[in-house]
Amino acid sequence: MAITLKDVAKKAGVTVTTVSRVLNNRGYISDKTRNKVYQVMEELNYQPNEIARSLSKKKSNIIGIIIPTVSHPFFSELAFYLEAYAYQKGYKIMLCNSQHDPKKEKEYTEMLRGNQVDGIIMASHTMEVSEYENLDLPIVTFDRQIEGIPYISSDNYKGASLATNLLIDKGCKKLAYISGSLSLNLLANKRNEAFINIAQSRNVDYITAQTDMNVFNTQQYEGLIRNLFKDHPDIDGVFASSDLIAANAIKVSEQLNKRIPKDIKIIGYDDIQMSSLLIPELTTIRQPIEEMSSLAIELLNKQINDNDVEIDNILPVALIERQTT
């Protein structure tokens, strides 16, 4: 039989109202009474009905996080930091993997609304703009700019400029930019824009290659890179839009007996933890993942509490040079 609020109140020798105030942190309650209620709750193994509490408070202290997939190292680290900073602010999270499926992404947003989350952090972006606008919830997006919705991004153009210039400064004569699908309207596409602009302005040959919509298939990465190197054996500089793609470029280069960095130089983007563990260690553009996560929670928390927030939030990047260049 489930333990109720009345059971806790009876054993603690207080009223049901007092127990409710302890649970919801409302009104003055002495430390002695508060500790007694908590002690009885523990003894009875009482679990508060969070849904009922959220209905009464009109706040669930739960936020939804939608990412493409937690299996990708960047999004795994992002989810880790988001959860940590959410917890510091008193929130729990509901984590959803969309796999870049518009139907799945929409179903998850509807599920989160149905569970009355306080807000959503969106790092997966296949839904139409109108669908975001109709959510009627505090939202923060990663790498997608939608009018009136706060977004967070690293300085993608600057990062790509640093990477492309370094490859050219190191003597590369033919460059390749390898990325996920550019069909999504993401701010990360500025990496491709900067790569092309720098290569053209410095009169260096270049080529771009992109995966299909499912951008997290490592076998697809390998196949794409292998075919690229086969069709363009003179490529001597690679800028990858993620460290995961760069790791696959290292693997294929070694399989084809391309010496790194003598025959080919490789730069990634993100500076996830694995980038310094690769052999050779990966040169990359560092996104401040932890700072971006902290800011996302801060922006969402401000919206939840009806405070003004900055819409445009672009954080600086840094070039981390290691052994692949």
From TrEMBL:
SUPFAM superfamilies: lambda repressor-like DNA-binding domains, Periplasmic binding protein-like I. Residues 3-51 form the HTH cro/C1-type domain. Residues 3-57 form the HTH lacI-type domain. Keywords: DNA-binding, Repressor, Transcription, Transcription regulation. Transmembrane segments: none annotated. GO terms for molecular function: DNA-binding transcription factor activity; transcription cis-regulatory region binding. This is Transcriptional regulator, LacI family. It comes from Orenia metallireducens. The lineage of its organism: Bacteria, Bacillati, Bacillota, Clostridia, Halanaerobiales.
